[in-house]
UniProtKB/TrEMBL annotation:
The keyword Metal-binding does not apply. It comes from Streptomyces durmitorensis. InterPro entries: D-isomer_2_OHA_DH_cat_dom, D-isomer_DH_CS, D-isomer_DH_CS1, D-isomer_DH_NAD-bd, D-LDH-like, NAD(P)-bd_dom_sf. This is 2-hydroxyacid dehydrogenase. PANTHER family: 2-HYDROXYACID DEHYDROGENASE HOMOLOG 1-RELATED. Residues 110-296 form the D-isomer specific 2-hydroxyacid dehydrogenase NAD-binding domain. Keywords: NAD, Oxidoreductase. Residues 8-327 form the D-isomer specific 2-hydroxyacid dehydrogenase catalytic domain. Belongs to the D-isomer specific 2-hydroxyacid dehydrogenase family.
Length: 334
């Protein structure tokens, strides 16, 4: 049987082909699954998709009509999937429920340090042989307060690094993580976290309850010189509200690896096109903002784990096994 994999990056292709070797053939496409590309899947019982795939109603209808029965998503998040429609159409959908949390946590700190110490601006200057220090002053993090919004596996890894910096630790989540408490984290209401933190990093999933959890009100609660980092999901931040605050000269730095309207932009080369997204176009002009293209997970360790889990999900489907990675069909209730 041949598996069709959408949205495969050049670095991923040899890893995917090697992982499926001896199990199934795999056809890798660099195009992402969308309404326009869904017809390509006709005749494929199993497809694999990337984090920015469109798995809404119309795409799922097209896939079902073409004979697709199983979708193996190569990501942890599944906010891009209409699970109710998928279940009604009889799909089996699995995700990667776990991969290296260090990849994302370390990258979140990379963004934090990049904006704090003005690394991008400094690098651009020295390439032009401009070695002045004007405008490059950062600040020590030791003794300052970090606010971690979401203290699961990735949030915990981020917190351990913050503890190594010697920072005061504030956390917010629906449940406390004993490991974070053991490091000295104090759990507080998110409003207090917004007001007291010098650096805020987001590590919560995108759910209806967390959509725009960083909105206009939350942004106004934050210190004028706060550093804000988002390596989770773009929809956690109201980007228009963020741009409004940045225009007023607020925030020491903002590091974003995700953007709420990134589908159709991120992972693609748009350098020769006019960008119609005015919000993103304005966002990247701020000198205290660094935007990267959803690459926090992109290490050989994490991608290897994602691919290995995807292969297991496919094999489980073919052999009638069920794991914690299966989203659809829903688990039976008792």
């Amino acid at each position: 049987m041949e598996i069709l994999a959408f949205g495969v990056q050049a670095d991923e292709k040899p890893l995917i082909e090697k992982a499926f070797e001896g199990h199934h053939d795999v056809r890798c496409l660099d195009v992402f699954l969308s309404e326009d590309t869904a017809p390509i899947a006709a005749g494929y019982e199993i497809i694999s998709t990337s984090v920015n795939a469109d798995l809404g109603n119309r795409v799922l209808q097209t896939l079902a009509a073409g004979g697709t029965q199983m979708i193996a998503q190569r990501s942890t998040g599944f906010n891009n999937i209409d699970l109710q429609v998928a279940e009604r159409l009889g799909f089996t959908i699995a995700r990667v429920s776990y991969y290296s949390p260090y990849s994302v946590a370390e990258f979140a700190w990379t963004l934090a340090m990049a904006v704090n110490r003005r690394i991008v601006r400094a690098s651009n200057r020295t390439r032009d042989f401009d070695f002045r220090l004007d405008g490059l002053m950062g600040r020590d993090l030791r003794g300052r307060t970090v606010g971690v919004l979401g203290t699961g596996k990735i949030g915990e890894a981020f917190t351990r690094i913050a503890h190594g910096f010697g920072m005061n630790l504030l956390g917010w989540d629906v449940a406390e993580n004993p490991a974070c408490v053991g490091l000295g984290m104090k759990y507080v209401a998110k409003e207090q976290l917004f007001a007291d933190a010098d650096l805020i990093s987001l590590h919560v999933p995108l759910l209806p309850a967390t959509q725009h959890i960083i909105g206009a009100d939350a942004l106004r609660m934050m210190k004028d010189d706060v550093i804000l980092v988002n390596s989770s999901r773009g929809g956690l931040i109201d980007t228009d509200a963020l741009v409004s605050e940045l225009r007023m000269g607020r925030f020491a730095g903002v590091g974003l690896d995700v953007y709420e309207a990134e589908a159709g932009l991120f992972f693609l080369d748009k350098s020769l096109e006019a960008i119609e997204d005015d919000t993103l176009a304005r966002l990247v002009t701020f000198p205290n903002v660094v935007v990267t293209s959803h690459q926090a997970y992109y290490t050989v360790d994490a991608v290897g784990q994602i691919i290995d889990t995807t292969v297991r999900n496919v094999l489980d489907y073919k052999e009638g096994r069920r794991s914690e990675n299966v989203l659809v069909p829903a688990a039976p209730t008792t």
